[in-house]
Design goal:
alpha+beta, five-stranded mixed sheet, two-stranded antiparallel sheet, 4 helices
Amino acid sequence: MSSPFQVQESSGCFQVSRPVTSAEILIMAKCLIKRRFKRGHALTSPDAARDFLLLELALLEHEVFYCIFLDNQHRILAAEYCFRGTLDSTSVYPRELLKRTLQLNAAALILAHNHPSGVTEPSEADRAITRRLIDALKLVDVRVLDHFIIGGTELFSFAEHSLL
């Protein structure tokens, strides 16, 4: 089935050719937000990162650890799943994240992981791994801009709570 959305690129408006379901709207929204997270696009707003991460992680039934790798101008180098876990935990390896960061020549990162339970309050393990990652990345002059925890439609920001 073809997309019910017709794009008017010059105006940024969309027309719908038939009635659409909420699932189709979510798919289109995810596609639009992903376009902003391609290599070379500048990340100019924390809200854009929030929207993207909510759509990317909210509905997963297992924990994942996700990273947005940025250059020194906060242009996106890559946005990818780095570690996959189980229903209630993910093992995160600072050495592996550091290797990937250096591979991409990233200057900054935005970290994120989800809590399938929907509870966004960071656990002691979340706080500890965030601190370990910040310390490891700092050794090679890479900044962690934020660490988000996604729980359904809720989001917790380490930066907003002064935990970085």
